[in-house]
Amino acid sequence: MPASFGILGGTFDPPHAGHVAAAVAAWRQLGLDEVKVIPAGLAPLRAVPPLASSEHRLAMAKLAFAPCAWARVDDREVRRTGICWSVDTARDLAAEFPESRRVWIIGADQLARLDRWKDIDTLGRLVEFAVLSRDGLPVAAPASIAGFIRLTVLKESPVRVSSTALRAALAAGEPAGNGLPNAVRAYIEEYSLYKS
Questions:
Q1: HEC per residue, the chain
Q2: CATH topology for 4-191?
Q3: Who contacts 108 (Cβ-Cβ below 8 Å, separation ≥6)?
């Protein structure tokens, strides 16, 4: 049983260098034993469903995090039917690892709307949060929840890449730049994902 672990959730449509950088920063700076990478099935705050199937997103996540021996891709949310609430995943993990330190890793974009997450007061008791700066966004919790969540700001240069921009470039047949791990790029090409 890990003494401490990170939880990196997301749609991973596709997984990119920013996701990996957040996991590495949390693992290194917080001394975590492992990071659980958990692709979402149906994410509640996402306006549109993922373009890639759950199977493709799981496969890409495994490729993106393969160089990180301490990362574990976890398929619990894609196996769940209906909306995947973070608080339900946190409850599951707290039941499985009651003595472990559990750290939910998020970007500053998610921190800005953390007060909209379901049962955030319960979630805040089950996990602490680590936030990585993104696109120059502030790294302060919304005032309504700042008093009860435990938050660590990761000291890492933000990686300026987004899944939205990568999907747009791939759909247009343009180079995706350095945002994609090479193995993920090869997988996308092999399966012709994100083509318009």
A1: CCCEEEEEEECCCCCCHHHHHHHHHHHHHHCCCEEEEEECCECCCCCCCCCCCHHHHHHHHHHHHCCCCCEEECCHHHHCCCECCHHHHHHHHHHHCCCCEEEEEEEHHHHCCHHHCCCHHHHHHHCEEEEECCCCCCCCCCCCCCCCCCEEECCCCCCCCCHHHHHHHHHCCCCCCCCCCHHHHHHHHHHCCCCC
A2: Rossmann fold (3.40.50)
A3: 131, 132, 133, 134, 135, 137, 138, 139, 158
Q: What are the extents of the domains in the chain?
A: 4-191
More confident residue, 182 or 137: 182
Q: Is the pTM of this model over 0.90?
A: yes
